[in-house]
Amino acid sequence: IFGVFFGANTAIPHYILWLVIGVFTYGLTSSSVLGGARSIVDGQGLMRSFRFPRAILPISNVIGNLLSFGFQFLVIVLVAFASGVGVSQRWLALPLVLAVHTALNAGGALVAARLNESFQDVQQLIPFMFRLLQYTSGVMFSVDRILGTNNIWLQRLVTYNPLVYIIDMYRWAIMGTTISPKGVVVATVEAGLLLIFGLRYFRAAEHRYGRA
Predict the structure, then answer these.
(1) Counting beta carbons within 10 angstroms of the beta carbon of residue 161, is it exposed (0 to 12), middle (13 to 18) or buried (19 or more)?
(2) Distances 136 to 92, 118, 133, 172 between C-alpha atoms, Å
(3) How far is CA 148 from each of CA 28, 75, 133, 139, 151, rounded to the nearest angstrom?
(4) Residue 187: which of 162, 150, 206 has the closest Cα?
(5) How far apart are CA 54 and CA 50, in angstroms?
(6) Largest alpha-carbon pair distance within the chain?
(7) How many CA atoms lie within 13 A of 9 on its CB side?
(8) Cα angle 206, 35, 141; round to 5
(9) Which residues contact 174 (CB under 8 A, 6 or more apart)?
(10) 114 burial type by CB count under 10 A (0-12 exposed, 13-18 middle, 19+ buried)
(11) Residue 71 belongs to what H/E stretch?
């Protein structure tokens, strides 16, 4: 639909591969954060039975989604070969891209876990939030369309959205698309800061998890 009505399929080479990368990598973040939000509430019985670091629950959810992403990545590889895009040396950078992406997902999952433990309606809001955020993350069409508008708030939302640059990093590694060095730095720094903040924010209330 976006390819036809917005002309993305003609403006972007190998649009199907470009789209598949965006959908799967964005889906990894949304499923990790949503699963993290539910982890503490769903793990109440386990936490009452055993003593263990509560951060294991959201982190294990992130790892589980990461393993599932491995099967999705195989689909990306198949689409890449079907599109005529072969393997290149850039693929060696994929573990580093995945590390930055995982740090972002883990930080988001930890923050969402504590928020949802206090306000259980949060898990209902997260899917809605991610459905809106995908339109400013370059999942289905290039964010250049947004950056070319006069809406300063939308431009800022794109500029400081780490998912924009992480998705671009995947596309660069697999397809050889252009990438912004500044964007790589922004995504790496924001992912690291979110992980550190998420760990501290989550652990600050760890004493009350499982006691409700």
Answers:
(1) buried
(2) 28, 28, 5, 19
(3) 28, 32, 18, 17, 9
(4) 162
(5) 10
(6) 57
(7) 7
(8) 130
(9) 17, 21, 76, 80, 85, 90, 91, 94
(10) buried
(11) helix 56-82
- How far is the CA of 114 from the CAs of 86, 125, 198, in angstroms? 43, 14, 9
Separation of first and last alpha carbons in the chain: 46
Q: Are 57 and 44 in contact (CB under 8 A)?
A: no
| Alpha-helix runs per DSSP H in 83-180 | 94-118, 122-133, 144-147, 152-159, 162-175
Residue pLDDT, tens place only, 18-53? 999 999 999 999 999 999 999 988 888 888 787 888
Q: Compute CA distances 102 → 21, 98, 106, whole Å.
A: 16, 6, 6
Dist CA 86 CA 202 (whole Å): 42
Worst-scoring range by mean pLDDT, 1-15, 54-68, 93-107? Answer: 1-15
Residues 6+ apart with CB under 8 A from 207: none
- Report pLDDT digits (tens) over 61-87: 999 999 999 999 999 999 999 988 888
Judge whether 2 and 113 are in contact, CB under 8 Å: no
Which tokens belong to 168?
């671009």
Provide Rg for the chain, Cα atoms.
18
